[in-house]
Write a structure and sequence with these properties.
37% strand, 0% helix, 105 residues, mainly beta, 5-stranded antiparallel β-sheet, two-stranded antiparallel ribbon, 9 strands
């Protein structure tokens, strides 16, 4: 497995969402597609801390279409629209890998 990014934070229940910058559509994990109005619970990508790395490895979904995305990271056991964004990164995705370095939001 290739990690595309590692976040060095201490979070209990890390997850993230991907928002397509061009049209505001959100990656719907349950249906593997960009969606304009998906169910919130279908859009969180669960993560886990890796104690050997000392951080949280992030892998981009293999079927995510190419484009620019905002990665919004949360620390929430039961993701909901009221969750506070803990960290935001803007990424450029080719469909296979990140281009350049993620930019902080």
């Amino acid at each position: 497995m290739i990690y595309h990014l590692i976040i060095y934070r201490v979070w209990t229940n890390p997850c993230y969402r991907l928002v397509h910058v061009a049209d505001g559509k959100i990656w719907d994990v349950a249906n593997s597609q960009l969606a304009a109005a998906p169910t919130w619970g279908d859009t969180d990508i669960q993560l886990a801390t890796n104690n050997y790395i000392g951080g949280i490895p992030v892998t981009i979904p293999a079927d995510l279409p190419p484009g620019d995305y905002d990665m919004l990271f949360y620390d929430a056991a039961a993701p909901a629209y009221t969750d506070v964004v803990e960290l935001g990164k803007r990424i450029a995705w080719t469909g296979k890998q990140l281009i350049g370095l993620p930019i902080d939001l």
